[in-house]
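Title: Request for sanity check on 50S ribosomal protein L35 prediction

Description:
We are preparing a figure and want to confirm that the structure record we downloaded matches what your pipeline produces today. Could someone re-run it with the sequence below and paste the raw structure tokens into this thread? We only need the token string, no images.
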Amino acid sequence: MGKRVKVTGSGKIMRQQTGLRHRLEVKSSKETRDLSRSVEVSKADLPRVKKLLGR
């Protein structure tokens, strides 16, 4: 799990978005750009991710 998420200085747990591995020629440049950004782990998944990270 440690390779998939990153903890920010303020304690947020960030992850990469899905959908950026294949079929990129089909997706628009805007879509590709938006998918390349990191997003915060959803509230529902936070307890599980924190447990896996040992936090």
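Thanks, this matches our download. The beta strands are 5-7, 13-16, 38-40.
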